[in-house]
Every structure is written in C-alpha cells, then in structure tokens.
C-alpha cells in the first residue's frame, strides 16, 4: 500500500519515518460502587494497548511558531441539509416498524428482571432508567425521583421509604477543591407501610420513561394492596391504600404529630415533626366519608380507625419558608401518574412538552418540582406558574415547584447548520497552503497503515474509536485534500475492516436479547457481566454504538451508495439506544433521560448511588452521530430529533457536568474542578473508573473531537479550563491524552493547537482513536481568525 501511495504522491509530502501508536483506552467499569468512605477505588486498572513497533520522530518540521497564510481553499462540501429541516416536524416518528435484522440471533438474557407484572414483561423493559434498582439484585438500593429518594424495604412492615437531604447535610471530600460530594443514604424520614404488610410482595407496573408504579401486597392477598405512582419531580409521595391499615415508621423518629382541622373538605391533614426538627405534612383522602386518625406508638405512626381505602400523601416543608405550607395545602390530593412527552422542531427552534397525566382532587392544581435546566428553558406561560416552594435535589441543584398540568420548554439554538466539518460560530473553515501540506503529509502516512491490525474485534467500543479515526481520515482525503483516487483507496480499506462487524463475522456476535429487548454483544454471556465494559448488560451502549454510527455516517456521506449496505444495521443500533417510540422490539430512549436532560450509561447493574455517566462528550457524540447518519439517508425526523437532544444536552451539561465560574447550580466549592468526573444520581465524583490522573478526568469529557464539540464546549469554557486546570500539567503528559487536550484547545485557541500538532509532532501523543490529519484539519480551519 505504501508503495502505491508513493507512486501517486510527490515524495516530498511523505514522512519517511515510521510510527508508534500508544493506544490509550478508558474503561467504563460498572462494578458496584462501594459506600466505604464514599470514595471510588482508584486502583481500577488502566487499559493500555500498545503497538510497540515503528517509532517516529518527526524532526524535519520547523518548531518555530508559524503564521498561516490564508487562502480560499475550503472543504469540498456536498450539502446534506434538507430544506424540509426548516419546516415544523414531529420528531417522535418511528424509525421503522420491522423487527431487528435476522443476523442478530434471538437469545434469552442470563439476568432476569425481578418483580415486574406479567403484563409488563411482554413489553420492552427500560434498562437505564431511574427505577432499575427496584428490579435488580437485592432490590433494596434507592430510587432517585428528585427531590425525593425512595427505597423498598422488605420484611416486617414492608414498605417504601421516603428521604430528602438538605444541602447542609451533604458530605464533601476534604481536599480542595473537593473531589466528591454526595447525599448520605439511609436517612429514612417517613416509611409507607401497613399493619398487614409483614413480608409483603413487591410488584412493578407501567414502567415508563419518567414514571413507574410500585405495588406492595400481603403474601396471601391480591385484593389488599398499597400502590405508589412514582414520578420524577413529584412534590408529594403518594400511596393508594386498598383495604389496608396504614402504618408509618421513621429512622429519624417521630417527635410529635399534630392534626389540623380542615373545614369544608373531606380529607385529613397532619403535621409531623421529626427528631431532626424537619417538618413533613401528611394528607389522608378517604374514598368515602370516614374518620381517620394517627397516633404515635413506640415510634410507629399507626392509623387507629381500621382498614383504609383511599389516598395518603407526604411532602416535606422546606426549611425557612413560611409560605410553603399554604401552597402545599392548595395542591394536596392531586398527583401525576405519568408524564407524556411530545416535541416539535421548527428549524433552529425546538419545543418539547411534558403533559402530566394526573388524578385531580376537587379542583386542586398539580404541583411538581422542576430542575434548573427545565426552568431556564420554560416558555413564558410555564414560567409564570412558579411558586416559592423549593427543595435541593441530590446532584442537580435547587428544584422549584410549579403549578400546572403542562410544561413547555423551548430550545432556540439547535445545531442545524453543523455537519461533518470543523465548526466555529459565525466562521467558515479555510486552509492555507502550509496547513494543507501538513495535512497531506499526515493523511498519507495514516493511509499507509494497516487498518485491520488496529481493530480490536473483541470490543465494539475500541473498534468504533478506530473506525471513527479512519472514517475521518477518508473525509480529510476526499473533502479537504480533494484526492478522489486516494479517497477510494481509503474507502476500500475501511469497508474491508468494517463489514465483518455488519455481517456479524467476529468471534463475539451482536445478538438480539428477547428478555430486555435490545442488541447486545454475547461476550458477557460466557466471560461474565463485566466483559466489554458490561455491554452485554446494557452498560455504555450509547458510547459504544455512537462511534460505529459516526464512522458509518461519514463513509455514507462520502459514498451514498455504501449507506445502503449498512443502513438497516445502523438503524438497529440507533433503535437500541434511542428508539423514538416504545414499540414491540425496543424501549423508547434507553439511554437519554428526558427529565435530567442527559443520558445514563449504567445498564442492568444495581447501584447504591443510582445510574451514572462518566463521559459527557461520548454522550453527545452518539446523538451527533445519529444526526449525521439521518442526514445521509434523508430521515428529517431523526435529524431534527438529534438536533433537539443536542440542544438540551448543551443546556444540561453546562448545568451539571461542565462548570464555568458563572454556574449557580452546583456547589460553589466544586466549580474549580471544571468537570463533574463521574456524575451519579446521588453523588458527583471528580475521577474516572480507569484513572485518577487529571488529564484523564478532564479529557474523558472531551473525546472525541468532532464538529459538534465546539457547540457543546464553548470557547470560554475551554479556555478557562485550560488556563486554570490544564496548562500547569500539560508538559508532564507523555501519552495520547496530551493530544486530546491540545485538540480540545483548538476550540478556543486554534493556532496554538495547530502549532502543537504541526511542529516536530511526536505521534506518541495520539491515542488509538485519534488521527493527526483530522487534528490538523480541525485546528487549522480557524487558525487565522483574529481570536486565535
């Protein structure tokens, strides 16, 4: 191959030295987090894959700082943006109604869900949603509703605990800035139960994206039951009792209870004061006009009027808020049973709406807590329904209660115009002759490499990173260097390496799991749940498949005919992660959480701190890849859906993952970390699962660097992080993470980034998913702008 390249190119553009790839990987370890000292085990291994042959020292390039001479050389761009993208479109349209491809063998998963009603087992099960702890493992780890946390407690007085932790109770690491903060677990303020619920039976039904119904029955009865509709953001925890005698316990302890007389209404109100001096309100709504009373007996709150049929709610009174009780009274008895999601995209504007399916008590309006990213995107009507009732969430800042049955949120800056090529707001990429020479030299060297030897066929994740690298290389050759002959050679080599995955010819196959309804690798069925980063157990699917889809989108853009060869296979990967509807084959949006505004990586692994996500950038990489592939096949609904999700991600990530000094949502002492590290539902830990090194912690929120990176990671954020966190360590880094950090710097200082990659560059600073040719394209595209 190298001989062929040399025949085509002028030899002055070829590097005669050879290359060394330090294939640095990151490892999404989904082993259960330990609660000991509330820290992660920093001794988890770093996976390094190194090709030790062929070392290069590019000593022939001048190290002096260069001033690039601008030219009118611009990318050869074929527009894939349909004019229809600027028309209103319902984004929740099915991708296809067919079953998964037959190449994915049907298998039964070795891990079976627990306590799900038979009727719900016939439907795809959400694996990555907030309530997964209810049907996994011991079933006794918490479920994070926000602002409340609930937990199933079996045994005597089986029931559902209700907890809430105020900010002053949160635990912070002692280092500066603190490396983690968390909410302590086990502070059960109120526990719903009944006298008849000794060794009660738990059952789940109506498993939806933002809600689940939990029912507890006595061992020998299905008529007697306690059902709780659990909905994200609920202002009250609600239990519907059927012929049971209500009973409540508390780990904190009941200090006193006060019954409040309610005139002209057939319900009962109690003010409960716990030994931590927190006040909770309890409301009882009998189905019929009956008496109801509660008494404290040995720290147990018992109903004294026998079996009860009706609804009981508890809610916490925010501290230091004299108006809260009246507002909570005014909405008592009304609660949400589920949230229906809808969305319309019109060009650069996206509207998404929560419509609450409610039970309404005598005209009382629904009261529901919103997260900060909701509030900052509410339309004027929704924003006008704000109350002054608020409670802190676990890891998403202060939540505020709003009145109303519908929330409408607007995103005004959808990335409609961002495609395959480097992006900087208000600018167009262009390349100097000098930059093109450097790009050409790097591209030709990378084209001469053996693609197959760099593919780790035992893992979709590592393979996908390499495929993305070579797809970008093909894009550089075809559209920047505009060499169609060599582009064809690149496409041929890429196709040869990629198609065995599409044709399922590798040792470990992708299969269709009929238990949880998804596409998984079968590797974990023989090598254990943690094989391939837990992919067989639905961990990190959006990370893994995102790279494969991204690579396919680029090749399909270059060669539209090739898209037909992989289209159905890619669409099934997209359906596994981000099916827009809940159909017979896949759940809707396995990974993306429409309530918190970002994805969760952890699959069917029980976890005391709930779901987590380690890489915000690999999160948005999936949806960007989905957008690009949608563009190549003309699926405007998919493109608009991805644009909306990317806009929501930009807002939520800057709220909860990426921290500028202006952030008022996260604890101020935590902001100097600049990134979350691993964000759990209950804690945020500035670390990774694979290394405590700072460059890894920050860098895992950067890779891969693509056109969408500058949309999410703003120049101001990038520069601030560089100046205050990275500049002091950059000269101590001697592996592929150095290249990642400098590539990211191109967002704010493209010339400085370009100088690094073009001046005596040592290829040991490239990780296995990085192309020097692409980094040069990305950094030089705007290197002549005044801001550089």
UniProtKB/TrEMBL annotation:
Q: Which UniProt keywords apply?
A: Carbohydrate metabolism, Cell wall biogenesis/degradation, Glycosidase, Hydrolase, Polysaccharide degradation
Q: Which residues form the Glycosyl hydrolase family 81 N-terminal domain?
A: 109-424
- The EC number(s) given in the record are 3.2.1.39
Q: What class of enzyme is it?
A: hydrolase
Residues forming the Glycosyl hydrolase family 81 C-terminal domain are 431-776
Which parts of this chain are annotated as the region Disordered?
Answer: 50-80
| The reaction(s) this protein catalyses | Hydrolysis of (1->3)-beta-D-glucosidic linkages in (1->3)-beta-D-glucans
One Pfam match, by short name?
Glyco_hydro_81
Question: Which Gene3D superfamilies does the entry link to?
Answer: glycoside hydrolase family 81 endo-[beta] glucanase, Golgi alpha-mannosidase II, domain 4
BP terms from Gene Ontology: ascospore release from ascus; bipolar cell growth; endocytosis; fungal-type cell wall disassembly involved in conjugation with cellular fusion; maintenance of protein location in cell cortex of cell tip; polysaccharide catabolic process
Q: Where is the composition biased (Low complexity)?
A: 50-73
Gene Ontology CC terms: ascus epiplasm; cell cortex; cell surface; mating projection actin fusion focus
Key word Cell wall biogenesis/degradation present in the record?
A: yes
Enumerate the InterPro entries for this protein. Answer: Endo-beta-glucanase (IPR005200), GH81_C (IPR040720), GH81_N (IPR040451)
The organism's place on the tree of life at top rank: Eukaryota
- Molecular function terms from GO: endo-1,3(4)-beta-glucanase activity; glucan endo-1,3-beta-D-glucosidase activity
The family annotation for this protein states:
Belongs to the glycosyl hydrolase 81 family.
Q: What is the name of the protein in this document? A: glucan endo-1,3-beta-D-glucosidase
**Record lineage:** Eukaryota, Fungi, Dikarya, Ascomycota, Taphrinomycotina
């Amino acid at each position: 191959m190298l001989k062929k390249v040399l025949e085509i190119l002028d030899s002055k553009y070829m590097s005669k030295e050879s290359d060394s790839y330090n294939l640095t990987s990151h490892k999404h370890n989904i082993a259960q987090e330990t609660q000991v000292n509330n820290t992660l085990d920093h001794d988890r291994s770093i996976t390094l894959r190194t090709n030790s042959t062929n070392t290069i020292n590019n000593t022939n390039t001048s190290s002096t700082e260069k001033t690039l001479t601008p030219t009118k050389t611009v990318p050869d761009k074929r527009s894939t943006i349909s004019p229809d993208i600027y028309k209103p479109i319902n984004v929740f349209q099915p991708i296809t109604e067919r079953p998964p491809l037959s190449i994915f063998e049907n298998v039964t998963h070795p891990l079976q869900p627990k306590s799900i009603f038979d009727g719900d087992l016939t439907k795809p099960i959400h694996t990555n949603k907030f309530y997964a702890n209810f049907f996994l493992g011991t079933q006794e780890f918490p479920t994070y509703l926000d602002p409340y946390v609930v937990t199933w407690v079996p045994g005597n007085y089986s029931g559902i605990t209700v907890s809430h932790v105020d900010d002053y109770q949160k635990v912070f690491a002692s280092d500066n800035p603190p490396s983690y903060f968390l909410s302590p677990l086990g502070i059960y303020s109120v526990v719903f139960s009944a006298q008849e619920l000794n060794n009660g039976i738990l059952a789940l039904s109506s498993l939806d994206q933002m809600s689940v119904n939990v029912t507890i029955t006595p061992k020998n009865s299905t008529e007697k039951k306690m059902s709780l509709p659990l909905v994200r953001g609920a202002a009250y925890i609600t239990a519907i009792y059927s012929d049971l005698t209500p009973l409540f316990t508390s780990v904190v302890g009941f200090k006193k209870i006060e019954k409040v007389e309610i005139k002209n209404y057939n319900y009962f109100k109690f003010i409960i004061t716990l030994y931590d001096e927190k006040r909770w309100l309890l409301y009882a709504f009998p189905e019929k006009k009956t008496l109801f009373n509660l008494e404290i007996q040995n720290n147990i709150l018992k109903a004294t009027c026998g079996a009860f049929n009706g609804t009981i709610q508890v809610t916490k009174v925010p501290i230091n808020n004299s108006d809260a009780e009246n507002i909570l009274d005014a909405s008592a008895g009304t609660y949400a049973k589920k949230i229906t999601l809808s969305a319309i995209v019109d060009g650069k504007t996206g509207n998404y709406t929560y419509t609450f399916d409610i039970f309404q008590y005598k005209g009382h309006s629904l009261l529901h807590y919103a997260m900060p990213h909701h509030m900052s995107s509410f339309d004027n009507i929704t924003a006008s329904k704000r109350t002054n009732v608020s409670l802190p969430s676990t890891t998403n800042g202060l939540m505020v209660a709003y009145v109303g049955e519908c929330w409408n949120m607007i995103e005004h800056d959808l990335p409609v115009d961002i495609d395959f090529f480097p992006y900087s707001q208000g600018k167009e990429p262009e390349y100097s002759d000098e930059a093109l020479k450097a790009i050409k030299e790097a591209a030709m060297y990378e084209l001469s490499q053996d693609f197959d030897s760099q593919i780790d066929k035992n893992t979709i994740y590592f393979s996908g990173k390499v495929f993305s690298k070579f797809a970008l290389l093909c894009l550089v050759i075809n559209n920047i260097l505009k060499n169609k002959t060599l582009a064809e050679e690149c496409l041929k080599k890429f196709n040869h390496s990629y198609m065995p995955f599409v044709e399922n010819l590798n040792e470990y196959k992708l299969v269709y799991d009929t238990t949880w309804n998804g596409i998984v690798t079968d590797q974990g069925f023989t090598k254990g749940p943690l094989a391939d980063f837990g992919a067989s157990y639905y961990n990190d699917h959006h990370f893994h498949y995102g790279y494969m889809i991204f690579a396919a989108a680029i090749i399909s853009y270059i060669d539209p005919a090739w898209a037909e060869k992989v289209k159905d296979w890619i669409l099934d990967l997209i359906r596994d992660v981000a099916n827009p509807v809940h159909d017979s084959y896949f759940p809707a949006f396995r990974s993306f959480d429409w309530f918190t505004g970002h994805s969760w990586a952890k699959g069917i692994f029980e976890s005391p701190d709930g779901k987590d996500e380690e890489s915000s950038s690999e999160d948005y990489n999936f949806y960007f890849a989905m957008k690009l592939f949608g563009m190549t096949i003309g699926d405007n609904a998919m493109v608009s859906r991805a644009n909306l999700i990317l806009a929501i991600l930009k807002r939520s990530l800057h709220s909860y993952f990426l921290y500028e000094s202006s952030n008022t949502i996260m604890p101020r002492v935590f902001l100097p970390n600049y990134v979350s590290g691993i964000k759990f539902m209950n804690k945020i830990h500035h670390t990774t699962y694979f290394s405590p090194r700072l460059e890894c912690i920050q860098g895992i929120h950067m890779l891969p660097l693509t056109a969408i990176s500058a949309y999410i990671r703003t120049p101001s954020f990038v520069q601030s992080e560089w100046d205050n966190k990275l500049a002091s360590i950059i000269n101590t880094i001697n592996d592929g993470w150095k290249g990642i950090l400098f590539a990211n710097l191109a967002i704010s200082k493209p010339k400085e980034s370009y100088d690094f990659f073009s001046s005596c560059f040592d290829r040991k600073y490239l990780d296995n998913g990085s192309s020097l040719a692409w980094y040069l394209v990305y950094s030089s595209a705007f290197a002549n702008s005044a801001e550089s």
